[in-house]
């Protein structure tokens, strides 16, 4: 088996809670991308997922993946109306569909079942003969005592099964009570809870999906998802599981399984299942349900009331075709968290828990009964002694017999919380178990019950890795893991402090030789399950969150980690060791929530979590990490390409140097603001980078120049940054140079390290191999401080185009520094630019003319546009002017009038083509105060101007 590629996105389980967070992540990332981009291209699901080969999910994450890839209404609403999700959108519709039920209805129905069994089978109850003997053979008293003892016990067991009150102020989520209560009123006949009904009629009830997605999984997916593999997690209990029982419970049919391959010593555990929906089109294998640990031997039994074995039969179960399953069938199998209630081994622990406080309850029930009160005193004492003995035996020697009495009816009542599947002819078909009472017919039908993949791998990551055997090269998986409880990545793994994460994340990590089967801690009795440890835990060494967001009002926490991982052997999932890749993890948790809306304020909590998650994604930079993790908006380093004629021409114009590039790749239409800043300069000689942006038509526009020398570090020159917009398909080109002839000829070498959402760049001297400058290139998030900075509206094609477009409603602060020896004067003038020729003029006079020089001098002297500032020599950066407002909209140029009475404006002097100024950063300019052709050192640091533009009109 192989999938179509090796880049996947996964969405973890967690019912409506997980679905809510996944929706907030996807819808929020798209909303932010729309706000960040300047494009007419429609941004939808292809924007996020074009670079992904497949999507995977479990439970609530499976619902989300299948709705997203099959329902046009769901996907469109999430892409375009995500802010209305809790009013007219998916969750708003869910709130109309779901009525908050009480556990009492389910408890009453279940009590009726157990009371009927006790009443109809009094003489067959465990310890009945002992009770009858203790009361001297009095049948009436014995019947009364047995009925009271076991009736009280049955109520105690039900209280344990339905332990959580659905409308509790602090709902517990590690139990089946709420889910049973939620599904009870949606059952087929109103007598037993049915998970298929709640998923089909409620979870898929929004947008009419109950009908639309009841078609087979082979129906056409949405266009953007047709070429994706969909991988859905599920599980199968190996232990004895109820198929069905007859009405009087004298016959029950159970199924168990054992592994053919026997990969582990354990036999009774939950084994993983992967449902693989191949890309749609010609040439792909059929869709399959895969038992990743290998084939199973199925063992069927017909049993009596107290567990007596009446008949047995066996068959073998291999991978199954799933083309006849509907979309909702697949979602229901993956999400039946309470399906363990159909497993008989679930109940002994519950019975034991119910007997711990049983004696006082039984005594009260007997003492208040009229039959007891009518007995003679000596017989009353005999009765109570007998009761004490029986209760003691129930908790000890008769434990197994008593458990057998209750397990089958309890499991039968809860059976449809798991999904009944027939497996005849190598196909998986969701259907009621075959119920004709003939064991061999049941075997031929292949009755099994399948349930939630969360019993093995709730993140769906292990399910993916097991399917990548045929894929060469590294993988990349982006996992959205949403939990209502937390766990730790221990300090022993990180080498520093422990990290708090969602509870499912640590399960993915371990070391060779770890136990492959471990207790599943979140259900009573802790059944054993295949454990999804597939990555070496050393991946966490020195790791901390790349990005975090905490909403204190709702206690919602999002952390993003980027991990370099290596697989370890886990044959239960089909994962082989030594595959390498990247695991991007978005860990979201809120411990005040729950997987199902079975508590009174559930939708309020979900809406708060949804809004908090969107705030983190849209307004606090999370969308950048989502987009980059999914490959939607990513930077790619490019070495010089000698075959590119346009580039060769540009390189020739730059002195014959090969220029290095970083290109934006990803989905059409996306763009983002970027910042490039000098982190440190390591040479006393000046080193500069001229930065150009190259569009798809190979047109180059100048962005700016940054750099300096180590001796200027205290002055801050090298810390200036450029802010610019870069779109998918556009390229940044770097042309390094110095101020000396020797430096200008050096072919400086670039190296880089990709972090998340950023690159650490190094400029290297090829002769000494020394790093001469270190830079950071990063995305600028929406609503960050830098996002508010004015974006230069001028497309420059030359480093000397030292002007900027300003509007009259703006305010500008100027910070000036002068690392040089002269005392110079700074000012600003408004210039005119011919849109056809690009020529600069002032008051009708072209630049580089005497008239231009004289007119600008007069404007400076008269403070026509700006009150001139005398800049002291060797001055550090200081706030020189605050709140200057240009009088008119237009292009403005910085002006330097030197101590030697030379005027430099708009990057030119009186010598045509001579440049005394450079753009050295976003809204930042630098002047050389000695004429370039008269012995200047060309370090462009004699006056450095940083403008902070704000207050848009």
Give a short overview.
27% of the residues lie in helices and 29% in strands.
Question: What attributes characterize this protein structure?
Answer:
seven-stranded antiparallel β-sheet; 29% strand; elongated; 953 residues; 13-stranded mixed β-sheet; alpha+beta; 45 strands
Distance between the termini: 60 Å
Shape: elongated
Class from secondary-structure proportions: alpha+beta
Strand content: 25-35%
Q: What is the rounded Rg?
A: 36 Å
Main beta-sheet annotation: 13 strands, mixed
Question: What is the share of helical residues?
Answer: 25-40%
- Average pLDDT figure: 84
Q: How many DSSP H or I helices?
A: 25
Low-confidence stretches: 164-175, 646-657
- How many beta-strand runs? 45
Helix-strand blueprint:
Blueprint: E1 7-11, H1 15-36, H2 45-49, E2 54-57, H3 60-70, H4 72-80, H5 90-97, H6 103-120, H7 128-134, H8 139-161, H9 177-184, H10 195-203, H11 209-212, E3 229-237, E4 241-245, E5 252-259, E6 270-277, E7 288-291, E8 296-303, E9 309-317, E10 320-321, H12 327-335, H13 347-355, H14 358-367, H15 370-373, H16 377-394, H17 399-414, E11 419-422, E12 429-430, H18 439-445, E13 447-452, H19 461-465, E14 475-483, E15 486-489, H20 491-494, E16 499-502, E17 509-510, E18 517-519, E19 528-530, E20 535-536, E21 547-551, E22 556-566, E23 580-589, H21 602-619, H22 622-629, E24 633-638, H23 645-653, E25 660-666, E26 671-681, E27 687-694, E28 700-708, E29 721-727, E30 731-738, H24 741-745, E31 749-754, E32 758-764, E33 771-779, E34 804-806, E35 811-818, E36 824-833, E37 840-842, E38 845-846, H25 850-861, E39 869-871, E40 875-884, E41 890-897, E42 903-905, E43 917-921, E44 924-927, E45 943-950
Parallel strand pairs: 1-2, 1-14, 2-3, 14-23, 17-20
Antiparallel strand pairs: 3-6, 3-13, 4-5, 5-8, 6-7, 7-10, 8-9, 11-12, 11-13, 15-16, 18-19, 21-22, 22-23, 24-25, 25-30, 26-29, 26-33, 27-28, 27-30, 31-32, 32-33, 34-41, 35-40, 35-45, 36-37, 36-39, 36-41, 37-38, 41-42, 43-44, 44-45
Helix pairs in contact: 1-3, 1-21, 1-22, 3-12, 6-8, 6-9, 6-17, 7-8, 8-13, 8-14, 10-12, 13-17, 14-16, 21-22
């Amino acid at each position: 088996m192989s999938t179509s590629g090796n880049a996947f996105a996964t969405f973890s389980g967690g019912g409506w809670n997980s679905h809510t967070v996944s929706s907030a992540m996807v819808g929020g990332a798209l909303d932010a991308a729309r706000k960040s981009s300047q494009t007419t291209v429609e941004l939808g699901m292809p924007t996020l997922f074009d670079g992904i080969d497949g999507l995977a999910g479990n439970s609530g994450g499976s619902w989300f993946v299948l709705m997203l890839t099959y329902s046009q209404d769901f996907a469109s609403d999430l892409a375009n109306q995500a802010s209305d999700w809790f009013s007219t959108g998916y969750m708003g519709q869910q709130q109309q569909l779901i009525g908050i039920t009480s556990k009492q209805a389910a408890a009453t129905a279940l009590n009726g079942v157990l009371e009927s069994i006790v009443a109809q089978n009094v003489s067959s109850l465990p310890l009945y003969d002992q009770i009858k003997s203790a009361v001297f053979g009095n049948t009436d008293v014995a019947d009364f005592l047995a009925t009271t003892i076991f009736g009280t016990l049955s109520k105690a067991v039900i209280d344990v099964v339905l332990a959580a009150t659905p409308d509790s102020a602090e709902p517990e989520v590690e139990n089946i009570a709420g889910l049973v209560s939620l599904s009870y009123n949606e059952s087929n006949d109103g007598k037993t809870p049915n998970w298929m009904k709640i998923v089909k009629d409620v979870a898929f009830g929004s947008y009419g999906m109950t009908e639309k997605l009841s078609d087979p999984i082979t129906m056409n997916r949405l266009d953007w998802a047709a070429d994706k593999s969909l991988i859905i997690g599920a599980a199968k209990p190996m232990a004895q599981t109820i198929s069905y029982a007859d009405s009087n419970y004298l016959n029950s049919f159970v199924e168990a399984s054992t592994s053919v391959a026997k990969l582990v010593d354990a036999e009774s555990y939950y084994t993983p299942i992967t449902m693989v929906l191949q890309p749609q089109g010609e040439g792909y294998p059929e869709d399959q349900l895969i038992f990743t640990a290998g084939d199973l031997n199925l063992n069927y039994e017909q049993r009596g009331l107290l567990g007596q074995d009446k008949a047995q039969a066996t068959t073998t179960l291999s991978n199954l075709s799933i083309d006849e399953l509907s979309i909702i069938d697949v979602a229901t199998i993956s999400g039946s968290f309470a399906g363990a209630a159909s497993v008989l081994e679930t109940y002994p622990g519950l019975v034991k828990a119910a007997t711990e406080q049983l004696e006082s309850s039984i005594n009260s029930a007997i003492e208040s009964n009229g039959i007891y009160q009518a007995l003679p005193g000596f017989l009353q004492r005999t009765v109570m002694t007998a009761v004490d003995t029986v209760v003691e035996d129930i908790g000890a020697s008769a434990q197994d017999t008593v458990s057998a009495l209750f397990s089958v009816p309890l499991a039968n009542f809860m059976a449809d919380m798991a999904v009944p599947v027939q497996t005849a002819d190598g196909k998986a078909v969701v259907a009621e178990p075959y119920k004709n009472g003939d064991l061999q017919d049941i075997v031929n039908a292949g009755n099994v019950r399948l349930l939630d993949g969360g019993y093995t791998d709730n993140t769906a990551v292990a399910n993916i890795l097991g399917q990548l055997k045929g894929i060469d090269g590294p993988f990349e998986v982006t996992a959205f893991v949403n939990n209502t409880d937390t766990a730790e990545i221990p300090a022993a793994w990180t080498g520093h402090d422990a990290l708090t994460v969602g509870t499912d994340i640590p399960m993915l990590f371990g070391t060779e030789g770890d136990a492959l089967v471990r207790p599943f801690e979140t259900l009573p009795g802790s059944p054993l399950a295949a454990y999804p440890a597939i990555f070496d835990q050393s991946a966490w060494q020195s790791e901390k969150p790349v990005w975090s967001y905490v909403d204190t009002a709702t206690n919602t926490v999002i952390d993003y980690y980027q991990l370099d991982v290596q697989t370890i052997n886990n044959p239960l999932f089909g994962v082989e060791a030594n595959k390498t890749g990247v695991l991007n993890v978005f860990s979201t948790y809120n411990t005040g929530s729950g997987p199902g809306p079975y508590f009174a304020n559930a939708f309020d909590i979900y809406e708060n979590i949804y809004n908090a998650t969107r705030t983190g994604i849209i307004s606090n930079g999370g969308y950048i990490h989502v987009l980059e993790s999914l490959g939607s908006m990513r930077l790619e380093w490019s070495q010089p390409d000698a075959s590119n004629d346009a580039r060769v021409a540009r390189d020739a114009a730059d002195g014959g140097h090969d220029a290095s590039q970083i290109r934006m790749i990803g989905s059409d239409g996306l763009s983002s603001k970027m910042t490039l800043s000098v982190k440190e300069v390591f040479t006393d000689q000046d080193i500069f980078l001229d930065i150009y942006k190259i569009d798809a038509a190979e047109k180059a526009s100048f962005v700016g120049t940054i750099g300096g020398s180590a001796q200027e570090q205290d002055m801050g020159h090298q810390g200036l940054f450029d802010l610019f917009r870069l779109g998918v398909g556009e390229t940044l080109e770097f042309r390094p140079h110095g101020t000396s002839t020797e430096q200008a000829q050096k072919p400086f070498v670039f190296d880089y390290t990709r972090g998340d959402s950023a690159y650490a760049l190094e400029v290297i001297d090829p002769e000494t191999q020394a790093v001469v400058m270190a830079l950071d290139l990063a995305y600028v998030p929406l609503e960050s401080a830098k996002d508010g900075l004015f974006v230069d509206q001028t497309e420059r094609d030359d480093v000397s185009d030292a002007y900027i477009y300003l509007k009259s409603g703006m305010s500008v602060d100027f910070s000036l520094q002068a690392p040089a020896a002269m005392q110079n004067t700074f000012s600003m003038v408004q210039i005119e630019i011919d849109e056809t020729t690009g020529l600069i003029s002032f008051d009708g006079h072209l630049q580089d003319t005497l008239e231009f020089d004289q007119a600008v001098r007069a404007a400076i002297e008269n403070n026509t546009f700006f009150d001139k500032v005398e800049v002291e020599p060797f001055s550090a950066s200081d706030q020189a002017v605050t709140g200057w407002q240009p009088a008119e909209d237009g292009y403005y140029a910085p002006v330097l009038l030197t101590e030697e009475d030379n005027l430099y404006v708009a990057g030119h002097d009186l010598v045509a083509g001579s440049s005394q100024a450079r753009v050295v950063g976003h809204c930042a300019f630098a002047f050389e105060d000695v004429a370039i052709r008269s012995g200047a050192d060309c370090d462009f640091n004699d006056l450095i101007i940083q403008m902070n533009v704000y207050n848009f009109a």
